[in-house]
UniProtKB/TrEMBL annotation:
Family annotation (InterPro entries): SAM-dep_methyl-trfase, SAM-dependent_MTases_sf
Name assigned to this protein: SAM-dependent methyltransferase
PANTHER family: RIBOSOMAL RNA LARGE SUBUNIT METHYLTRANSFERASE YWBD-RELATED (PTHR43042:SF3), SAM-DEPENDENT METHYLTRANSFERASE (PTHR43042)
UniProt-recorded Gene Ontology molecular function terms: methyltransferase activity
One Pfam match: Methyltrans_SAM
Keyword Isomerase: no
A biological-process GO annotation: methylation
Length: 104
């Protein structure tokens, strides 16, 4: 992550607890934005950043649908991390999963 994030503005979609966000900032990112549809996940990411960097870290968090958010960002970010959760845990829902991946 350090090699990619240094000096860049980073967007971490599907951030969950913000692991990639922490590594991006630790790697020298200028700024990191964490997005997840779960408000609880965003709270965890925020807490994780606070624990690792204290108050005032260059980090913003947004509780929103990551795919919808991606539609409106333009060229605001230099690096985008896309690590969605598994859309299919069983072969019976493979069709729905494929639709989810196409949406991305």
């Amino acid at each position: 992550m350090k090699r990619y994030a240094k000096g860049r503005t980073v967007l971490n979609t599907f951030c969950y607890t913000g692991g990639f966000s922490v590594y991006a900032l630790a790697g020298g990112a200028r700024e990191v934005c964490s997005v997840d549809s779960s408000e609880r996940a965003v709270e965890l990411a925020t807490e994780n950043m606070r624990l690792n960097f204290g108050e005032g870290a260059p980090h913003t968090e947004i509780a929103a649908d990551a795919v919808e958010y991606l539609r409106d960002i333009g060229d605001r970010y230099d690096l985008i991390i896309l690590d969605p959760p598994a859309f299919a845990k069983h072969h019976k829902v493979l069709g729905n999963a494929m639709q989810g991946y196409k949406r991305l």
